[in-house]
Specification:
alpha+beta; about 120 residues; flat; 4 helices
């Protein structure tokens, strides 16, 4: 990335930065989701532009902040599961998690079937 060139995201090309190119498409899109929670972006010519993120140093700072954000979310989830296990027991917690997993799979299948039917039309 050239000096002082804003970070841009294009749906077909993804980010315009070599540091971020080391991540696959899903990783870049996940990072984009994080950046969109901030107020410093705009859309121009079908690209999302982050004017304040304009150097490799600033990109590395955002990656570090993103890592902390992800770790906090993971910690909160793990803590909630642990607290549940402490209150209702390990077996019951496993059953609750298994039920959540079944519900997620059921909803995924429902969406896949809906998408498949729409494509057939």
């Amino acid at each position: 990335m050239e000096n002082e060139k804003p970070l841009e995201f294009d749906v077909s090309k993804l980010f315009n930065n070599n540091i971020l190119h080391q991540y696959d498409k899903d990783g870049q899109i996940t990072f984009l989701g994080y950046l969109l929670t901030k107020d410093n972006w705009r859309i121009k010519d079908n690209k999302i532009i982050f004017n304040e993120i304009n150097t490799d140093e600033k990109i590395n700072e955002e990656i570090e902040k993103f890592d902390i954000y992800i770790r906090k979310r993971k910690y909160k989830t793990q803590k909630l599961i642990l607290e549940t296990a402490m209150v209702v027991g390990i077996f019951e917690t496993k059953e609750l998690l298994d039920e959540d997993r079944k519900l997620i799979i059921k909803k995924e299948q429902k969406l896949k079937n809906k998408d498949r039917k729409e494509k057939e039309l």
